[in-house]
Amino acid sequence: MDRELSSPTCFLDIHEKYLDRQFSADHRPTKSRYNMASTIPTAARVVESAVISAPLSKVWHLIKLQDFATFWTNLSKSEITKGVSPDTDVIKWTFQDGTVLEVKQEEHSTIEHFITYSVITAKPALDYTSVLSTVRLFPITSGEHRGHTFVQWSGQFSSDASVGVIEDAKYKRREALADLEKAVGKSA
SUPFAM superfamilies this protein is in (predicted)? Predict the structure, then answer.
């Protein structure tokens, strides 16, 4: 070989020679120099945020999975699912459109002010494998928004989530954050 081993073309040539030796022409995987990256699974991430016009202490008490229906207008109810496990908090969210999600609290910190949850069941079934979401609050300590709360709601989706799923999650989080602002304003 007269090319350097670090050359991408060299790697592809070696890969093709390997395929030639390992597979007969009838059973050989398709090869492409140009779209190898398209076969690598990647996760999609959604991050939405808002400044809520209230101190963190007023916002934080609403950030419990069983209380999301008190502010999120897309939810008709949220209730604790009994009998799952003494060590696991599972909440059943029923949406206005009839969709039902069971969400499992994965992590909760009253010190760092965040909650992380995953969807464990859905009716109707989801079109993707998984999503892990986190709602995180930060007190704003200076500037024109001093005394307010910065809220960030993120979601990490499995690689089989479509663009439509990601966009829908983005808009639902925006709507929920706007609903949170309204709910905190009413309780002031």
Answer: Bet v1-like (SSF55961)
